[in-house]
Amino acid sequence: MDQSLTKSDFIGHDDHAPAAKRSWMFARPDHKTGIVSWLTTVDHKRIGFLYGITALFFFLVGGAEALMIRTQLAVPNNTFISAQTYNEMFTMHATTMIFLAVMPLSAAFFNYIMPLQIGARDVAFPRLNGFAFWVFLAGAIILNVGFFHKAGLPDVGWFGYAPMTAKAFSSEFVGDNSTDLWVMGLQVLGVSSVVGSLNFLVTIINMRAPGLTMMRLPVFTWMTLFTAFLIVLSFPAITIALVEVMMDRNFGTNFFEVSGGGLPILWQHLFWVFGHPEVYILILPAMGIISEILPCFSRKPLFGYPIVVFSGAVIGFLGFGVWSHHMFTTGMGTVATAAFSMATMTIAVPTGVKIFNWIGTLWKGHLMMRTPMMFALGFVWMFMTGGMSGIMHSAAPADAQQQDSYFIVAHFHYVLIGGSIFALLAGIHYWFPLMFGRKVSEKAGKWSFWIIFVGFNLTFFPMHFLGLNGMPRRTFTYDGNMGWTSANQLATLGSYILGIGIAYYFIVMIYTYFKGEKVGRDPWDGRTLEWSIPNPPPAHNFDVTPTVHARDAFWYEKTHQAEIAAEKAKKAAEDEAHGGIHMPSNSWFPFITAAGMLIGSLCFAFHYIPGAIVGLGITFFGAWMWSVEGPGGYHLHPTKSDGDASSASH
Amino acid sequence: MSSHAATAGHIDHHHDATTSTGIPNKKLFMWAFLASDCMFFGSLIATHLIYRLHPPAGSPDPRDLFSIELTSGSTFILLMSSLLMALAVNAIQKGNVATTRKMLLGTIIFGLIFLGGQVYEFNHFVKVGGLTLSNSVFGSTFYTLTGTHGTHVAIGVLWLVLMYIRTFKPTDDSNGQGWIAKGALHFLAFAGAVVVGMYTLLALVHAYEEGHGLAYYFSHHFISFGGTIALIGALIWFARSPGPVDFGEANAIDVESMGLYWHFVDIVWIVIFPVVYLLEYIVLP
Ligand code: HEM
Ligand SMILES: [Cu+2]
């Protein structure tokens, strides 16, 4: 191995000392199973799995909260839940769905699938990856402690508009600390998202298999890259906004305090500078998944690949220039309003382009109507509907009527459920065989698709009319003679059907995990590299790092088998000559560092300063030990016993 | 490095053959993080600017508060620390651990001087200028912005100290983590020297300001003065050459990433300094 290779900073120095020799309390665990192996894991696939399970759990929690909302609105003048509980429910529903369900579920795919698609053994910083997950879990716990504590749940809306977050308002109702929990929880989640995204960014740019040029990257990986960029550049804005609220609440500053000269409108700017890119953070991964599934089940390459990629970049870029379309009614002035209105309309162009590309992919394809494909087609249709109403609000005069009405609620659910959630459910179906070696039965899969599809449209389509008939969003109840009753009843009925569909989907997944039809590798006749490895994938992903010759690299491999086999034998021999495959060791410190953050932030939210200091101390200790621990590692020889050229050269 | 094209086997720190782009992962990571940090400071500076341009009635006038001389001085010190940081990176790229240590120490000291200046300033503004976090939006934004920058500097100093201690990691690590315990003591001595040293220094300034003589100072602050001397002695003792160390050219990328962070924090100050201290704002109607 030549010098420059040993200096690789993602592998670092080899650390051949066996674990037993290390006589200190945080010895590197080398367990392969059991709880310790999960707490200390650095394997991107395991971390992806952890993200997925946690996100699905919170998806159910958020769904239950949504059903509470809908039940309350089922009949006029309902008293099912109190106004205060209603506020808590819609705040937690949205916060949970966005930050604890959709984003981490996307992160699950980024973790599990993206490194496989680029032919990498792991992400660039494996321990940091584990850290991002544990920090995410910490943030999720902080946001939800109100369920178990008299502080109560946050009730300020997921947008936390000032001055609702001011101290004066929160102490009026149940818990004084609920807003502090919201503020701390979101900050902690921000740390997780940014750290995770920096890792993905470096991984995609730096860890691609030989020959995998940027213009050969699978589209899902591209969208991961754009999402990571958006997160890295937009989260700081909300972090600052949250820091400012935290200062207002705890240290008497006046950032948003009108009596002290503060400007609540500043909160809205900072929030939406983050908030609008955030909606693309939610939808771009979905677009990536769709762009994998449609070609696979149309038996055709993606139509207009470069255009799909560039339009993704354009969406990401424009996404930063349109935040004030959420603020048309705040009196920004005509120039600003007109400018943001036009900027918003331009976003429809790259979005529309993508839709045409998907239709182009389907055009004259040999469509295989499997469940993932059904969800993907559902996505295209409903996302288009949501996009259409989006264009309607980009016209400021129309938006002045629609803002804060149910029309908006209809719009963002068409893009968030019809878009993000449908794509994520499609992705779970699509990649399930890769992860667990079993396939969901087509019959059960299609039933779950249809129930969810019908329930969803029944819930949210009537909301367009409710909005146009003047029903404001965030209303806790309404009077019987407003003319809103029947549409609300339809929506509530729909939400139950949707709930049943989701429950059915989960049951089908659990059943499939234990009893589903067993399939070998590559059951869909896939096109990208993740399908080239055995299932379930081994820790080292690829016995031999693939060399990429074309877009849809695995498809190419299938059609050029002889050539690829020779190349692999040569590569395996090289790996062996370099001492085998180097894998990073497990580590306790990502977990410990994140645990310190949980303790510190929770104590701070409850104004218990000694606890906050202890938490900070644990975080510091963990980070310090992490930095001196070194990446460690061990070697694997997956191809050595094959008896071919690889073992001979050793 | 380009002039050494012919030195075969020499490690080129700017190119990592194992990455797709040839850029080391840590460096790319740091650049991306700094892009994120730009947005972070951008949001804070925007907050400050908005309130400077629309000051509420009765806002204090910053011109009555600031001492441009003092802040210019500490700004100069901060910029010079960047020079030392660059020299540290240069030294470690040549494998010169002794010089790296000296330059890291220099950077640490300059960073501490800057922080000391800020502590003095904050203290002065609160006590003399009557500007607090809560009595005006100007105070809120001023302390939050410069305080966040100060926190960045402090994190940088902490990181530098840890890096400095890592330069003592012995090659022979076979007796487990003995050096980590020693490193922890080294760190404690460092932290103690800074805190106690600052305290004695401030006491000296006070004694001087209040017209007490040196004799008074030594008689009243004998313990902290002695403590400072003892802690500095401990630092020198810890810094004895421990034989071959496991820190060298291969760690250049670590020092370089830290250097990028440090330079960035200095550059941000170059933006903050004029925006907060130098510009005179026309108050819009
Ligand atoms: C499970 C089915 C769902 C139902 C029945 C449902 C229902 C609702 C309702 C009725 C509201 C309006 C509350 C109000 O303003 O009074 C709402 C708000 C919201 N929902 Fe959902 N939702 C569901 C799923 C989702 C998903 C999957 C997401 C995210 C991806 C989501 C994101 C949001 C957001 C962001 C709001 C805005 C909250 C606000 O501004 O007040 N919802 N939901
Ligand atoms: Cu928007």
From TrEMBL, chain A:
Gene3D superfamilies: 1.10.287.70, Cytochrome c oxidase-like, subunit I domain. Keywords: Cell membrane, Copper, Electron transport, Heme, Iron, Membrane, Metal-binding, Respiratory chain, Translocase, Transmembrane, Transmembrane helix, Transport. InterPro entries: Cyt_c_oxase-like_su1_dom, Cyt_c_oxase-like_su1_sf, Cyt_C_Oxase_1, Cyt_c_Oxase_su1_BS, Cyt_c_oxidase_su1_bac. It is found in: Cell membrane; Membrane. It comes from Actomonas aquatica. Its EC number is 7.1.1.9. Belongs to the heme-copper respiratory oxidase family. The chain crosses the membrane at residues 49-69, 89-110, 131-149, 181-207, 219-246, 266-290, 302-323, 335-353, 374-392, 412-435, 447-470, 490-514, 591-624. This is Cytochrome c oxidase subunit 1. Its main location: membrane. Residues 32-549 form the Cytochrome oxidase subunit I profile domain. It comes from the Bacteria.
TrEMBL record, chain B:
It is found in: Cell membrane. The chain crosses the membrane at residues 28-51, 71-92, 104-122, 142-165, 185-208, 214-239, 260-279. Keywords: Cell membrane, Membrane, Transmembrane, Transmembrane helix. Signal peptide: none annotated. The keyword Cell membrane applies. Gene3D superfamilies: Cytochrome c oxidase, subunit III, four-helix bundle (1.20.120.80). Pfam families: COX3. It is a multi-pass membrane protein. The keyword Transferase does not apply. Residues 27-281 form the Heme-copper oxidase subunit III family profile domain. PANTHER family: CYTOCHROME BO(3) UBIQUINOL OXIDASE SUBUNIT 3, CYTOCHROME C OXIDASE SUBUNIT III. Belongs to the cytochrome c oxidase subunit 3 family. This is Heme-copper oxidase subunit III.
